[in-house]
Amino acid sequence: MEGQVTVRLPSELVERLDQLAEERGVRRSQLIRDAIRAFLDRPPGVPGEIPFDRVRDLKGAVYGGPPDLGARHRDYLKDLFLGR
After folding, report:
1. CA 61 to CA 68: how far, in whole Å?
2. Residues 58, 53: Cα–Cα separation, whole Å
3. Residue 23: how many CA atoms within 13 Å on its side-chain side?
4. Using the 8-state DSSP alphabet, how is residue 7 labeled?
5. Where are the domains of the chain?
6. How far apart are the first and last CA of the chain?
7. Residue 30 · residue 21 · CB < 8 Å
8. What is the pLDDT of residues 15-48, one digit of tens each?
9. How far apart are CA 83 and CA 24, in angstroms?
């Protein structure tokens, strides 16, 4: 059984919604259903975004550095502080 819900949105949100719908080639209503489903499916107490979402636009913005920094960060910090 389907139900219908009417929601009033600020024009700025409608414009953004229409733009995204056009980019993805879907209807506005599909985006709204997907967004509500994602919101309702979150476990209680879990924030809406994951930390990676905050820096997603930075991915690939920095080049260079040691390839094993994640695994050997303590060694690199020791070298930095000891002046090696």
Report:
1. 18
2. 10
3. 7
4. -
5. 8-60
6. 69
7. yes
8. 999 999 999 999 999 999 999 998 888 777 666 6
9. 52
